[in-house]
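Posting this for the archive.
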Amino acid sequence: MTRAAVLCGTGSCLPGRRVGNDDLAALLDTSDEWIRSRTGIGARYWAEPGTATSDLAVGAGQRALKDAGGSAVDAVVVATATPDRVLPATAPLVAARLGLAGAAAYDVAAVCTGFVYALATAAGLIATGTADRVLVIGADTFSGILDPADRSTSVIFGDGAGAAVLRAGRPDEPGALGPFDLGSDGDGYDLITVRGGGSAQRLSERPPERGDGYFSMAGKEVFRHAVLRMSQSSARVLARAGWRTSDVRWLVGHQANRRILDRLADDLGIPRERGIGNIAEVGNTSAASIPLALDDAAAAGLLRPGDRVLLTAFGGGLTWGSAVLTWPRPATDREPVHPCPAPNTRPEGATDGHHV
């Protein structure tokens, strides 16, 4: 029988520093009203000095493994745009700290679409028999690459991690993931970017400029592409699944901007109140946003067995992706999303000097 990847556990981790809009208003030419009216964001969490992306990934991974009822997995996939180092990948370190040394471990770099891409690759590992259980983590610490003087980006992004455990199962059972829809458009390569740090900058004859190490985004163009690409991708994946939009109980879009999420729901013909989101409290957490929102909703008892769920994301590259699943189980007695202490247990010699 065809194997499918089945969701069997979720978890999340937020750093301890909550940054409200009023905190930013004291530093930037902005206000709580300005931020909320344009983004829907009231607060976000930023990592404290000494915390790395791997710390948050380990925290989320631990919770997801506990929720799934077991710690053994065959592979660990980490979706991140802010790895601990340019190389090696962050996933092997995360696997080792979770006691999973020996498991396959690799990173996926698709920015805010990263978690959906990572789910698809993990589903492929399971479908081919390469793995029976896979831990998928979306984790980012965008606070480390934001220009503190740029209010257009500093007010949007937060840090965090979310995770899911997938097991081998049947395509017709609750929790089975798929179909997927993935896409990209490199003509929009410069719309969401960090220009410095890679080979293009390092091997150029141009000396680095102040802004090269900071994240930048062309807001108006990104807004337009995000709504269009997620709408089109969602329509394609629903058609492949044989679902109508009226079949969708919950829409879980990448938590980029409240206005984007509302426009997406309107374009798809899904009532806005069926959109699951936590952007007001955590901001845009990039690759972590979808698993964070799922874990939040699961802990709150919002997701019920049999609920049909549509996941969709858009990010730098440009990239986009969507997937569907039927929620597999009732709510369990678990902690809701809240700041969790990131374990400070990196193997000796693994600490990146940037985070000391």
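The first strand starts at residue 4 and ends at 13. The first helix runs from residue 21 to 25.
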